[in-house]
Specification:
alpha/beta; TIM Barrel; seven-stranded parallel beta sheet; six-stranded antiparallel beta barrel; 12 helices; 29% helix; 20% strand; elongated
Length: 375
């Protein structure tokens, strides 16, 4: 008998969430972000779920190759651009747009193109589409304002198509610097007289800052049904559906007497007689070891469609976690459980554990079987 843990990816929910993005952005073209193996959901699922997106944004040329082999005909954007001449040639071969964010990339592109014959230069330059990145305040990647127009002129002078891109640091909050308003003003000022499309809005800006939607949007976490702020309540009204369910089952039930503890470290002590359930899921599966007492888990009833939320007790171990079944009298060995999904939003697991839904999605372990469903 196989271990009962499984992750299920719902491609129809991916499609649904993309449709919600289109509604919010008045059908603007979309770069659906599929980096990190589509946030742990798998490129094959993303290919199916985001079929109506104009483009897919990622980091690795290997992933771009896989998508082309799957049959993806739409645009692909390399979010960190190219690092070598081989990258540039493969970018052309795979028909990818590229972000240009540093002077070293400018030099690489310029040097490579200048080695081409005049006829080849014109042929190649017409195929290269760049998204020049402005560092408007995030202070990770991108040209600062003083260098931005110069970088644009270099690329434009080579005959390349040049578009404009920036990234917001604090679109999920109104209380941090730099603000979206400040960054947007810098972006508008630097690009207002330059040709090319503009892209700025990530998931948080799509939800909270409609004035920044520009020409192309770049949704990420919201496409997978989780909150950019890490708070489920922030997206509860937007009809976004979780695309990943992590499920398992109860594999043992124990009775604790008052004064008895459970698990490593004995960080939970029973104050009365209680039943506890042992679930086949631990930190080696991607469940956070830091999940505190009270983290919600849904337990289902083997004899009906009903179930209830129960709290984690004890320390999460490598292969197991334990829950209090005091309010789940129906529970027995074999009962299904949901660790996160439609019944337990992933953000409600991540926040108590001191992390965010992004990390839990991406940290799903390779040993967890994955089923792709169309709902």
């Amino acid at each position: 008998m196989s271990r009962p843990i499984q992750a299920t990816i719902f491609t129809q929910n991916l499609s649904h969430n993309l449709a919600q993005v289109k509604k919010l952005t008045k059908a603007r073209p979309t770069w659906a972000v599929v980096k990190a193996n589509a946030y742990g959901h798998g490129l094959q699922a993303a290919y199916a779920g985001f079929a109506q997106s104009e483009g897919l944004a990622l980091l690795d040329l290997h992933d771009a190759q896989l998508l082309r082999e799957m049959g993806w005909k739409g645009k692909i954007l390399l979010l960190e651009g190219i690092f070598t001449t081989d990258d540039l040639e493969n970018c052309l071969r795979l028909d990818c747009d590229m972000v240009v964010h540093h002077a070293s990339q400018l030099i690489l592109i310029e040097s490579w193109i200048k080695l081409l014959s005049p006829s080849k230069h014109e042929q190649v330059s017409q195929k290269i589409a760049c998204w020049l990145k402005l560092n408007s305040g995030m202070n990770r990647l991108g040209f600062k304002s003083a260098q931005y127009v110069m970088a644009y002129q270099v690329l434009f002078g080579l005959g390349l198509t040049v578009n404009h891109l920036t990234h917001f640091a604090n679109a999920d909050t109104d209380h941090s610097l730099p603000t979206v308003s400040e960054q947007w003003q810098v972006f508008e000022h630097c690009t207002q007289f330059l040709e090319g499309f503009r892209s700025a809005a990530n998931s948080a800006a799509i939800l909270r800052h409609a004035n920044t939607h520009a020409d192309w949007t770049r949704p990420g976490i919201m496409l997978y049904g989780a909150s950019p702020s890490g708070l489920w309540d922030d997206i509860a009204g937007y009809d976004l559906k979780p695309a990943m369910q992590l499920s398992s089952a109860i594999i043992s039930i124990q009775d604790l007497e008052p004064g008895q503890t459970v698990g490593y470290g004995g960080n939970f002590t029973a104050t009365q007689m209680i039943r506890i359930g042992v679930i086949a899921c631990g930190y080696a599966d991607g469940y956070p070891r830091s999940a505190p007492l009270g983290t919600p888990v849904w337990v289902g009833n083997n004899n009906s469609d009903h179930g209830c939320i129960v709290p984690v007790i004890g320390r999460v171990s490598m292969d197991m976690l334990t829950v209090d079944l005091s309010h789940a009298a129906f529970a027995e060995v074999g009962c299904p459980v949901e660790l996160w999904g439609a019944k337990v939003p992933i953000d409600q697991v991540a926040k108590p554990a001191g992390t965010v839904g992004y990390e839990l999605m991406c940290a799903l372990a390779a040993r967890v079987p994955v089923r792709v469903a169309s709902n």
